[in-house]
């Protein structure tokens, strides 16, 4: 006789009849809590959507309802609850910005999901063309001209036309079932890229970090390590692995070293940081050691 095995979790049935959970509600109505849980099973990225208020003060809220709508013209949407403190700003704004948070910006997501918090004191940001704030260290950002506001139940759907955007080599923050998560291969690759008396660094809002990616190549992928080197370094050789360590979250980090003719950082995050004091300027203690190791190797090579 065969043995029956459960191959999947039995689905919760949120349409209520006369019996079972929620008995007493009219037949055919939906259980709100169950509906929330079911909707929460849809895994998403996490954004903070921002706009500039008429008084010049920025407003923003954590949102996972961000969706791309159209490529031609380039349209995106975000849904905002009418009860949100930032609703009046978005009800009037001519534009907004969508900050796609990176895996290490969980705290930013929490702050911007907290009504009444002193939100913008907790992040480094600058205004884009629409005036809406874009944060340092995000995985991607979209600056949007307000195209349409559509009333939809207890939310308003704001549709924007993308007039500027950017992307970084940072892994995105994820959200599912009420929990934050990160898409992580378990391996991170960083590079100490040196040209003369400077190394390439990235300011992520909490301090200087080494350029870091989840994959080594190809060089035409700007999110890969080779792509980062190709973009920001001139005349770079082939990176050689130098140092490795386990991160507090269990990921394994390999740090490469590469010499280049020149560094060409641009934008608000990328820096050519002087070698003198560079190690101590790194925000992550494990990167401090990696930079020290890379620089002492360079000294040995020269002597
Ligand atoms: C991961 C996550 C995603 C969220 N997505 C949305 C969303 O898409 N739309 C929305 O109105 N609120 C969303 N919220 C809730 C708002 O961030 C929250 O209500 C916040 O307090 C709004 O800020 P405000 O009241 O200062 O405007 C989300 C919260 C979290 C934690």
What does this structure look like?
The protein is α+β, with helices and mostly antiparallel strands and 303 residues long. It folds into two domains: 44-179, Electron Transport, Fmn-binding Protein, Chain A (Pnp Oxidase, Chain A, Roll); 185-302, Nucleoside Triphosphate Pyrophosphohydrolase (Alpha-Beta Complex), CATH 3.90.79. It contains six helices and 21 strands. The protein has helices spanning 32-39, 87-92, 106-112, 225-232, 278-281, 285-302; strands spanning 44-45, 47-52, 58-63, 67-70, 75-81, 95-100, 125-127, 133-135, 140-152, 155-167, 173-176, 179-182, 187-195, 198-203, 208-209, 212-213, 233-234, 240-246, 252-259, 262-263, 270-274. The strands form five sheets. A seven-stranded antiparallel beta sheet has the order 3-2-6-9-10-5-4. Strands 13, 14, 15, 16, 18, 19 and 21 form a seven-stranded mixed beta sheet that branches. Strands 1-11-12 form a three-stranded antiparallel beta sheet, with no helix packed on it. Strand 18 and strand 19 form a beta hairpin. It is elongated. It starts with 31 loop residues before the first helix and ends with a helix. Flavin mononucleotide binds at residues 46, 61-65, 79-81, 84-86, 109, 113-115, 175. GO terms for molecular function: FMN binding; riboflavin reductase (NADPH) activity. Residues 1-23 are annotated as: Disordered. Residues 39-182 form the Flavin reductase like domain. Keywords: Oxidoreductase.
Structural class: alpha+beta
Bound small molecules, by name, code or SMILES, are: flavin mononucleotide
Shape: elongated
Strand content: 35-45%
Radius of gyration: 23 Å
> How many runs of DSSP E, i.e. beta strands?
21
Q: Which residues form runs of ≥5 with pLDDT under 50?
A: 1-9, 16-25
* Major β-sheet strand ordering: 3-2-6-9-10-5-4
What's the CATH C level of the largest domain?
Answer: Mainly Beta
In the CATH scheme, what's the topology name of the largest domain? Pnp Oxidase, Chain A
Order of helices and strands: HEEEEEHEHEEEEEEEEEEHEEEEEHH
Number of helices: 6
What is the CATH superfamily of the largest domain?
Electron Transport, Fmn-binding Protein, Chain A
CATH architecture of the largest domain: Roll
Q: Helicity, in percent?
A: 10-25%
Largest sheet, if any?
7 strands, antiparallel
User: How many structural domains are formed by the residues?
Assistant: 2
Alpha-carbon distance between the two ends: 77 Å
